[in-house]
Design a protein that fits this description.
0% strand
Length: 248
């Protein structure tokens, strides 16, 4: 990832380097994800994934609101505002968070328990909190660049939808309703954010920053799956007061 002194990348080379980060570090390569997508987990393990992932889903509009509050340009703020609406929904409800709760409902988890985050793993909470802090405190360009994991998400979403529907008899089209809108929303968001990053990463320092930011975001996602694997697959050591598969 390191650039040689003075080796400012062209727009095309910078985009290529960003995409290479996804090819090497995106969490679709994690063993927990492979088990999830190929129907090799039991219901309790899938419940644990959905419950912990809720912490991340619920934090997305929070981090976007913090990022938007730092944007001086109203046109950019207006563009970013759509992301919050996508997850929080509008006056008539809906939105990504509500759709995720329908997933946890369908898996038999109590909604109040999910929303409380009481059963989430400590590592999940730390990872999500670290991401919100990063977006709040790092340079705005780096904060925007950290969202570029969405470049890689349409492929993993399509794989997740088909794999989980085929692999689990307790998964239905209705419970997977979160994912279909994200196929188009993620592509729209990437088009804007990638253009912004390529337009503004015009110094060596800024290029270092955006590459490191995207790598950091990949680490955030990967670390959440590390915690799930350790607690619910092998060696199955669940921290005190956290969700216990097949009975909490």
């Amino acid at each position: 990832m390191n650039l040689r002194p003075g080796s400012l990348l062209s727009r095309g080379d910078l985009e290529r380097r960003l995409r290479e980060i996804g090819e090497n570090y995106y969490h679709d390569k994690h063993p927990f994800h492979r088990l999830l997508h190929t129907g090799q987990l039991d219901k309790g393990q899938v419940q644990a994934w959905a419950l912990n992932r809720y912490c991340y889903q619920a934090a997305i509009p929070v981090k976007d609101a913090r990022l938007m509050a730092r944007i001086p340009d109203h046109t950019l703020r207006r563009e970013w505002r759509q992301r919050i609406a996508d997850h929080d929904g509008g006056e008539d409800g809906g939105g990504g968070i509500e759709r995720w709760l329908k997933l946890t409902d369908g898996l038999g988890l109590e909604r109040d328990y999910v929303m409380s985050r009481e059963g989430a793993l400590p590592a999940t909470k730390f990872a999500v909190g670290g991401y919100v802090h990063f977006v709040s405190e790092m340079p705005l360009l780096d904060a925007v660049a950290s969202s570029l994991t969405e470049i890689f998400s349409p492929v993993i979403i399509a794989e997740r939808m088909s794999g989980m529907l085929a692999g689990y008899d307790f998964i239905t089209e209705e419970t997977m309703a979160y994912f279909k809108p994200r196929l188009t929303q993620a592509r729209r968001d990437v088009d804007f954010a990638l253009q912004y990053v390529l337009d503004n990463a015009n110094t060596l320092e800024r290029q270092h920053g955006v590459l490191a930011a995207l790598r950091f975001k990949c680490d955030v996602l990967w670390s959440q799956l590390d915690a799930l694997y350790f607690s619910y697959v092998d060696p199955r050591i669940v921290p005190p007061d956290c969700f216990v598969a097949n009975g909490r």
